[in-house]
Specification:
The protein has 407 residues and is mostly helical. It has one domain: MFS general substrate transporter like domains (Growth Hormone, Chain: A, Up-down Bundle), CATH 1.20.1250. Helices cover 81% and strands 0% of the residues. The protein has 17 helices and no strands. Helix 1 packs antiparallel against helix 8, helix 4 runs antiparallel to helix 5 and helix 11 packs antiparallel against helix 17. The longest helix is centred in the middle third of the chain and has 31 residues. This is MFS transporter. It is found in: Cell membrane. Keywords: Membrane, Transmembrane, Transmembrane helix, Transport. Its main location: membrane. It is a multi-pass membrane protein.
């Protein structure tokens, strides 16, 4: 749970909030137009997630071999936390090195999460697995807010001249805080968590891993309902993830100040937690599928509304709309999938669930980047995401309710 507490700082500070704002300001100072810097950031996110999508499946299967899970976890965690700190030491005005190091931080963060998620079966019983996982998720929200608030405070005090630090240095301190926070709260996991369940090593673990992946893929193809849902998930979760990763860059393009953006994102984190719970309760009343449609419709409205954004108030309204559905659509997608798959093979099938999520993270940022570059407007880039939600919603209609589907 403390790893959730520690690494969630990366999600809000590096992926969503402070780094994108900092990059946009560096790019602007270097003479790059706003829509082009948004495009470059979109391309970078796409490159990072594509690399992860390519290596993720094999890493996930390697994690099952005895004695390797913790070694790979440590390697990716260390790469991620160390490279996050190194963002602070990029020379002033160097926007391209910032993006290159960002790719490395992303690979470290998401790569470590593959092995971290796999450790869940080792640390608790099946009866308590949901409870332990949910507590970790909850602690992650809290753990991300604390260093975020500290970082915002330093940046605002610097901006107002209360502390004698240039804004650039104050912002870079946020990267150092993130890396140290992440590293510190990973220590309990490194010291106390051990791999309990494992597959005995084969003579060639790489070939064995690919063979196991092939077998799982053949199983998925036999279950048409599962496969169609994964396709639907591929499209709409791509839109969700893109909005999360590109929101601050878009807000910056609209001329919204860095301080306002940071405060909006902080409130969004706080509001998202209870709404995730509300989505869960409403799913029991109206069905999971109905609430997934609600989430998709809300996100279509977000994309349309974003096209007409012009003021800070508009961005606040947009952020609160995102907060209402961000956690809910992700949480319900996971539980819906769990009801569709064969229960005795849920671990194998969830491996492909994560693979589809990783591949999905490539298309959205790429779509935003290309559209923004071609049209000269970031607004058209965000609006283009409507296509992903519409396709995802239409495919979801083809998936029977879990209760009526024998898999």
């Amino acid at each position: 749970m403390f790893y959730d507490w520690g690494n969630s700082a990366y999600s809000i500070i590096i992926t969503t909030a402070i780094f994108p704002i900092f990059f946009k300001s560096v790019a602007t100072d270097a003479g790059i137009e706003a829509n082009m810097s948004t495009a470059y950031l979109g391309y970078t996110v796409a490159i990072a997630t594509f690399i992860l999508a390519m290596i993720g499946p094999i890493l996930g299967t390697i994690a099952d071999y005895r004695g390797l899970k913790k070694k790979f976890f440590f390697a990716f965690f260390f790469i991620g936390s160390a490279s996050t700190v190194s963002l602070a030491f990029v020379p002033e005005g160097s926007w391209l090195p910032l993006l290159i190091i960002y790719v490395i931080t992303s690979i470290g963060f998401h790569g470590a999460n593959i092995f971290y998620d796999a450790f869940l079966v080792d640390v608790t019983s099946e009866e308590k697995m949901n409870e332990v996982s949910a507590r970790g998720f909850g602690l992650g929200y809290i753990g991300s807010v604390i260093p975020f608030v500290i970082s915002i405070a330093i940046i605002i005090l610097s901006e107002k001249g209360v502390i004698p630090l240039p804004m650039a240095i104050a912002t870079k301190l946020a990267f150092v805080i993130t890396g140290i926070w992440w590293f510190t709260f990973t220590i309990p996991m490194l010291r106390n968590v051990v791999q309990v369940y494992a597959i005995e090593r084969e003579p060639n673990i790489i070939a064995g891993s690919f063979r196991r992946l092939g077998n799982t893929f053949k199983e998925i193809r036999k279950h048409r309902t599962v496969f169609i849902f994964l396709l639907a998930y591929f499209f709409y979760i791509d839109g969700v993830g893109t909005i999360i990763s590109m929101s601050t860059a878009y807000g910056s393009d609209l001329g919204i100040g860095a301080t306002d953006l940071l405060i909006v994102l902080l409130v969004t984190q706080i509001v998202a937690a209870p709404f995730s719970i509300i989505y869960g309760k409403l799913a029991h009343k109206f069905s999971i599928k109905a609430m997934l449609y609600v989430g998709i419709i809300v996100y279509i409205a977000i994309c349309i509304y974003a096209f007409f954004l012009s003021t800070t108030l508009d961005f606040w309204i947009l952020a609160m709309l995102v907060a209402t559905s961000q956690g809910g659509i992700q949480a319900l997608s996971r539980s819906y999938f769990a009801q569709l798959v064969p229960k005795e093979k849920s671990n194998e099938f969830f491996g492909f669930y994560h693979i589809f999520g990783k591949f999905a993270s490539v298309m959205g940022p790429l779509l935003v980047g290309v559209t923004a570059q071609m049209t000269g407007s970031s607004a058209y880039g965000v609006f283009s995401l409507v296509i992903l939600f519409i396709i995802g919603g239409l495919l979801l209609r083809m998936v029977p309710k879990p209760e009526s589907q024998l898999v």
